[in-house]
């Protein structure tokens, strides 16, 4: 049986949790439930301060930059081949970094 998208997300979250991340907060995956042909990934709540539904800003970009650098830390989960990047398709961290 192949991994479902929800089971892969649970595995990635478990791999991210022990890392010391500067900008990202990783929720704990409590359970993965199969129900009526659906996979439901239940996440533990965590307190968010000074966060809101807002446009993509510096904090979000910093999180994406940090996530893009975690390829080696997640290689055991995602692999090293094409399509194994920890960031959304088309995202290039190098475009977001300020010039030196």
Tally of strands: 2
The total of helices stands at: 3
The largest sheet is: 2 strands, antiparallel
Q: What is the share of helical residues? A: 25-40%
Structural class: alpha+beta
Low-confidence stretches: 93-100
How is the largest sheet built, in terms of strand order? 1-2
Helices and strands, in order, run as HEEHH
What characteristic shape results from the CA principal axes? globular
- Average pLDDT: 76
- What value does the Rg take, in angstroms? 15 Å
> How much of the residues is beta strand, in percent?
5-15%
Q: For the record, give the distance between the C-alpha atoms at the N and C termini, rounded to a whole number.
A: 48 Å
Count up the domains. Answer: 1
What does this structure look like?
- The protein has 100 residues and is α+β, with helices and mostly antiparallel strands.
- It has one domain (5-95).
- It has 3 helices and 2 strands.
- β1 (29-35) and β2 (38-43) form a beta hairpin.
- It is globular.
- The termini are far apart.
- Residues 93-100 have low confidence and may be disordered.
